[in-house]
Amino acid sequence: MMPKITEPSFEDIKSRRPEALSRLVEMHTPALLAGALGLGFPPSEAEELVQDTFVAFLSALERFEGRSQVKTYLFGILYNKALELRRRQGREETTDEIEKIVDSRFDSRGHWTRPPKGPEDEARISELGRMINDCAGGLGIKERAAFYLKEGERQSTEHICNMLGISPTYLGVLLFRARNKLRECLEGTMNG
């Protein structure tokens, strides 16, 4: 059994002791990575977000006063970096989503890579996926992370609370809000 990694002292972190920073990265990387994945980023972007989070933490270390837990501070940076990346991706998006879908369905000779199930099935699945993505985009970043980790990843309440630095009560509130917003959005989209 591996020994549990203990968080370095505030003084060791502030003085940038290499062994303290190494322990800090080793201790918090798994939770930050799971948080980035929970926000809907693919693994490569999630890993980059975690790296950017630690770079920003080290850049802002002089301003860190230790009034909050290091984990809470790191997740705050992660959320801000995630928002920046989403804005940047929105500006850089140049190709139409339908073109990507069509291109992925055919090989270089114009043959189906996987034959369609049927026009009705494909339309229904595609439309439902788009509606869910659109509706999930309306969730707050914490609501989306909590919902994804609980419903998509099937993580325990305790694990999610530790990862996001929130109480079980607040997690319940986030999940309640996320489910209601998704339900209302989907109902409104399907009925309207």
The sequence of SSEs as H and E is HHHHHHHHH
Helices, by number, come to 9
Can you tell me the residue ranges where pLDDT is under 50 for at least 5 consecutive residues? Answer: none
Portion of residues in beta strands equals under 5%
Sum up the overall morphology in one term: globular
The counted number of beta strands is: 0
Mean pLDDT: 83
The first-to-last residue Cα distance is 56 Å
The main pleated sheet reads as:
none
- Alpha-beta classification: mainly alpha
Radius of gyration: 20 Å
Fraction of helical residues: over 70%
Q: Which descriptors would you attach to this protein?
A:
mainly alpha; 192 residues; 0% strand; 72% helix; globular; 9 helices
Tell me about this structure.
Helix content is 72%, strand content 0%. The protein has 192 residues and is an all-alpha fold.
Could you give the topology of this structure?
Layout: H1 10-14, H2 18-38, H3 43-59, H4 70-92, H5 97-105, H6 119-137, H7 141-152, H8 157-164, H9 168-191
Give a short synopsis of this structure.
The protein is mainly alpha-helical. It is 72% helix and 0% strand.
